[in-house]
Amino acid sequence: MTSPASASAPAAAPTPRPAPHRLAAALLAGWLAPGTGHLLLGRRGKGLLFAVLLNGLYFCGAAFASFGHIDTLNREVMAALQVFHGSGFIAGWLARDAFTGGVNHKLYEAGVLYASVASLLNFLALMDLVSPARGRPRPRTEAAAAETPATPAAVAETPAPPADN
Predict the structure, then answer these.
(1) Of 26, 33, 117, 164, whose CA is between 20 and 30 Å from 107?
(2) 154 within a domain of the structure (yes/no)
(3) Which domain does 83 fall in, by range?
(4) 79: Cβ–Cβ under 8 A, 6 or more apart, which residues?
(5) Exposed, middle or buried: residue 92 (CB in 10 Å: 0-12, 13-18, 19+)?
(6) In angstroms, rounded to a whole number, what is the distance separating the alpha carbons of residues 7 and 149?
(7) What's the total number of domains in the chain?
(8) CB 125 within 8 A of CB 35
(9) Which residues, 6 or more positions from 163, have their beta carbon under 8 angstroms from its beta carbon?
């Protein structure tokens, strides 16, 4: 039996997929600066959320590590993971020779971890850009298709049963 709330709600139409060139531009922009890909596709809420949280987390991690978060000598895997945060990785890669903080201070490990986690979260945000399931209605089962919800107009058009004398 269908609940009244689901009977009155119209079925959601699938969201049209963006053109391939717009999607490619959004992926590149989202890689360079997290959140901008969503903003380019008109997903303002997600774009702003990702921009603030992922860039903030990455910057905090870089600051904790004294901006030596791209350490290809001691932390190769962590440095490779940070590729998914494009502009942060590029800036860190270019400035890696200027790093003077050393890997022995207390917040270095936490900083590298924060920057790596922010980069992996940006990878998930990029996957959200290309997700084909966005806005797709749930598939109806045969039982649900057979049981169509009664609309007020259909009830009004139903003839009344004959009166018993």
Answers:
(1) 33
(2) no
(3) 22-130
(4) 69, 70, 71, 72
(5) buried
(6) 6
(7) 1
(8) yes
(9) none
Residue 44 lies in a domain: yes
Q: Which amino acid is at 26?
A: A
Taking the model in full, what pTM does it have? 0.66
What is the model's pLDDT at position 77? 81
Q: Which two tokens stand for residue 2?
A: 């269908």
Q: Which residues of 33-69 are buried (b: 16+ CB within 10 A; e: fewer)?
A: bbbbbbbbbebeebbeebbeebbebbebbbebbbbbb
Instruction: Tell me if 100 is assigned to some domain.
Output: yes
| Mean pLDDT (10-residue bins), the chain, 165 residues | 52 66 92 93 92 92 80 76 84 72 72 88 91 58 60 59 67
Whether 65 is in a domain gets the answer yes
